[in-house]
């Protein structure tokens, strides 16, 4: 298929947070003006301030703003944007929205709607993968009450019931014996019906202790599809990725070659264009199975950029304009080792409850080999309306052990005041011996032991707790001495300064 | 001033005196050292006998969260007077009912208990939807639900009282 090259004149970013900044930066670097869209909760957000133009699209709830096709298309029309970048989440894997962009003559910076649709339906995508000789988890397509038990016997236990229209862990049931299957089927079907409006359920053998490894692929409009190697994403909590790294320390060169070839075949089978990710499960025998394809730019794309040196968002813009890929498969090399951690406004000590509030102070890590993608600033109000991810912290070093050391240091430097975050929890993962060994599966976080007692931390914690409480009580109940207010502070600092000399 | 620092079920005694220069003289386990603290919001930099320690937390009466050196601790710091006063009221007064608060702003997607229900400490009593996630709110004490102040689908702010739990 020959696509004429049509330069993009203005890009609307249908997203918020760090990914909106990522896209705005890439556009401005190549001289393309940008349009931000924002909800009433995001007037002060950095994506609004960094873009060339910004359009208000509705109330804070995403259902009334960032997810409303009409509002976003109207914003594109008003601002004269001829392309829309959906980022990740929100409308990024919405085939209907991609179609409407096409109908409106707007370039959707992502795959064609047909590819999104083909990969969105789990049963359909399984069939297409099988036809393309991509290994899938042994299983049975669409089952009903009558075929259920027979199909389960063929698949074997333990198995998983999954919603065909599924995603995000909804509509999934693990079944360990025939006696549980009827009830599990009814519940999976009801959940799928409720969540996706489609109660179609299929069976898959449960891969126990799986590694979650994904391959970055990229296609252009000229029929070229390449891969940019894998990412290891097995550090997960309830199907949510927490830490990612590349190269995968578990994948051998021979397995890497087979997985990357399979990923390219998978993308080719659905006529894939632009950036995408093929997710695989790898069992302890290093057999791998197609899990699903994410038809968008991934959160964790940055670590692939670090080891390959390729700017994926810049490439997305180029490919969307009809240009062929700017590199060939043979040009793509993995150099060094990169790790990403997802810093979230959540409290691991209280069941990972999300935390909201105003960011009072922000101390960011720096130095060589460190990359931080965030939309944070002191004064930012973190609201309950959107995802709890605050920042992506990535490091890139010559070796895995060096990368781990740099990440530990960066996490020690990163401080976000005013909210509870998972920073200390991430630091624990980076110190965990199983993570350090490089051989870990998706059960890692469940197995991770609680932090060890350490007498020195205990001593310092006791002293610090008493001093902070004492100092707080002093300032909130001012004694005579402190009535001088600002004056005494200045005097105190002067004294401290004097004491230092 | 003498303080009791309690975390992980253990009491520790510390004395803190603020000197004229604003620094604190601290005695703990028979050792006396000078501690200098500067604070921005809930982030603190402390020099503990010359050792640089970064800490996060908002000290208050009752339990608060302290993070330092990668450890997160729920601490209670009481002055000697506070502890004595508490011992007095505790001895004469009836146990106070405890409240369940919304730990974050969001939408109450479901109240899981009704007035008169007996709940165990740690049992889920309501679900609040925030940041695309459903979050279980748990009872902080064992008792009987005396009063419920919210309804399903209601919007709440962090700190709002959801229900009151009292003695059976």
Give me some keywords for this one:
heterodimer, A: 501 residues, Rossmann fold, Dna Ligase, domain 1, D-amino Acid Aminotransferase, Chain A, domain 1, eight-stranded antiparallel β-sheet, five-stranded parallel β-sheet, 23 strands, 37% helix, B: mainly beta, Glycoprotein, Type 4 Pilin, OB fold (Dihydrolipoamide Acetyltransferase, E2P), 2 domains, four-stranded antiparallel β-sheet
Distance between the termini of chain B: 39 Å
Strands of the biggest beta sheet of chain B: in what spatial order?
A: 1-2-3-4-5-6-7-8
Structural class of chain A: alpha+beta
Determine the CATH superfamily of the domain at 336-452 in chain A: ATP-grasp fold, B domain
Number of structurally distinct domains of chain B: 2
Secondary-structure element pattern of chain B, one letter each:
EEEEEEEEHEEEEEEEE
User: Which CATH architecture of the domain at 336-452 in chain A would you pick?
Assistant: 2-Layer Sandwich
Please give the largest β-sheet of chain B: 8 strands, antiparallel, barrel
Query: Average pLDDT of chain B, to the nearest integer?
Result: 88
DSSP helix count of chain B? 1
Tell me the distance between the termini of chain A: 75 Å
Tally the helices of chain A: what do you get? Answer: 17
- What would the principal axes of the Cα set say about the shape of chain B? elongated
- CATH hierarchy class name of the largest domain in chain B: Alpha Beta
Task: Explain what the structure shows.
The complex is a heterodimer of chains A (about 500) and B (about 170). Among the domains of chain A are: about 100 residues, Rossmann fold, CATH 3.40.50; about 70 residues, ATP-grasp fold, A domain (Dna Ligase, domain 1), CATH 3.30.1490; about 120 residues, 2-Layer Sandwich (D-amino Acid Aminotransferase, Chain A, domain 1); about 40 residues. With about 500 residues, chain A is of the alpha+beta class. In chain A, the strands form 6 sheets. Chain A has an 8-stranded antiparallel sheet, with helices on both faces. In chain A, strands 3-2-1-4-5 form a 5-stranded parallel sheet. In chain A, strand 1, helix 1 and strand 2 form a beta-alpha-beta unit. Chain A is globular. Chain B has about 170 residues and is mostly beta strands. Chain B folds into 2 domains: about 90 residues, Glycoprotein, Type 4 Pilin (2-Layer Sandwich); about 70 residues, RNA polymerase II/Efflux pump adaptor protein, barrel-sandwich hybrid domain (OB fold (Dihydrolipoamide Acetyltransferase, E2P)). The model of chain B has no long low-confidence stretch (mean pLDDT about 90). The interface between A and B is large, with 53 and 60 residues.
């Amino acid at each position: 298929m020959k696509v004429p090259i049509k330069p993009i004149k203005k890009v609307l970013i249908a997203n918020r947070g760090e990914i909106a900044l990522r896209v705005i930066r890439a556009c401005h670097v190549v001289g393309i003006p940008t349009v931000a869209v924002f909800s009433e909760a995001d007037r002060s957000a950095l994506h609004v301030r960094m873009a060339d133009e910004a359009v208000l699209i509705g109330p804070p709830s995403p259902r009334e703003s960032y997810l409303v096709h009409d509002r976003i298309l109207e914003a594109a029309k008003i601002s004269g944007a001829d392309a829309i970048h959906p980022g990740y989440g929100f409308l990024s894997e919405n085939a209907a929205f991609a179609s409407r962009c096409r109908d409106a003559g707007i370039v959707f910076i992502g795959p064609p709607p047909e590819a999104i649709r083909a990969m969105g339906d789990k049963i359909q995508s399984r069939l297409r993968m099988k036809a393309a000789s991509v290994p899938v988890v042994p299983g049975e397509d669409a089952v009903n009450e009558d075929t259920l038990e027979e199909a389960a016997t063929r698949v074997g236990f333990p198995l998983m019931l999954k919603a065909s229209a599924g995603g995000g862990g909804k509509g999934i049931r693990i079944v360990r014996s025939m006696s549980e299957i009827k009830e599990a089927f009814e519940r999976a079907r009801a959940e799928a019906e409720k969540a996706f409006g489609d109660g179609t359920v299929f069976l898959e053998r449960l891969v126990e202790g799986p590694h979650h490894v994904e391959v970055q692929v990229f296609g252009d409009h000229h029929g070229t599809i390449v891969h940019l190697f894998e990412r290891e994403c097995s550090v997960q909590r309830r199907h949510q990725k927490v830490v990612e790294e590349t190269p995968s320390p578990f994948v051998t060169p021979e397995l890497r070659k087979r997985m990357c070839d399979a990923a390219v075949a998978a993308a080719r089978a659905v006529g894939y264009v632009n950036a995408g990710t093929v997710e695989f499960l790898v069992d302890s025998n290093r057999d791998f199975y197609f899990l699903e394809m994410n038809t968008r730019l991934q959160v964790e794309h940055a670590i692939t950029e670090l080891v390959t040196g390729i700017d994926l968002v810049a490439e997305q813009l180029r490919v969307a304009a009809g240009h062929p890929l700017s590199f060939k498969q043979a040009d793509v090399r993995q150099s060094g080792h990169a790790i990403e951690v997802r810093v979230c406004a959540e409290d691991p000590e209280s069941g990972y409850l999300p935390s909201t509030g105003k960011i009072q102070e922000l101390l960011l890590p720096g130095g060589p080999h460190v990359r931080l993608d965030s939309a944070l600033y002191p004064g930012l109000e973190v609201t309950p309306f959107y995802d709890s991810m605050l920042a992506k912290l990535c490091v890139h070093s010559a070796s895995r052990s060096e990368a781990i050391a740099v990440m530990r240091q960066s996490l020690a430097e990163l401080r976000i005041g005013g909210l509870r975050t998972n920073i200390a929890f991430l630091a624990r993962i980076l110190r965990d011996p199983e993570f350090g060994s490089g051989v870990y599966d998706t059960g890692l976080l469940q197995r991770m032991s609680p932090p060890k007692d350490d007498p020195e931390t205990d001593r310092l914690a006791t002293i610090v707790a008493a001093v902070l409480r004492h100092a707080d009580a002093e300032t909130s109940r001012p004694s005579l001495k402190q009535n001088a207010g600002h004056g005494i502070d200045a005097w105190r600092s002067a004294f401290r300064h004097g004491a230092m000399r | 001033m003498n303080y009791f620092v309690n975390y992980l079920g253990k009491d520790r005694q510390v004395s803190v005196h603020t000197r004229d220069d604003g620094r604190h003289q601290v005695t703990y386990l028979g050792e006396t050292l000078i501690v200098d603290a500067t604070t921005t919001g809930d982030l603190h930099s402390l020099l503990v006998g010359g050792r640089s320690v970064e800490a996060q937390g908002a000290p208050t009466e009752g339990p608060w969260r302290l993070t330092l050196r990668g450890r997160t601790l729920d601490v209670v710091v009481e002055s000697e007077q506070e502890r004595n006063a508490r011992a007095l009221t505790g001895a004469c007064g009836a146990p106070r009912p405890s409240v369940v608060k919304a730990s974050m702003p969001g939408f109450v997607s479901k109240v899981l208990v009704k007035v008169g229900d007996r709940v165990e400490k740690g049992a889920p009593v309501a679900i609040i939807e925030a940041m695309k996630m459903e979050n279980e709110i748990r009872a902080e004490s064992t008792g009987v639900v005396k009063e419920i102040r919210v309804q399903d689908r209601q919007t709440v702010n962090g700190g709002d009282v959801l229900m009151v739990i009292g003695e059976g």
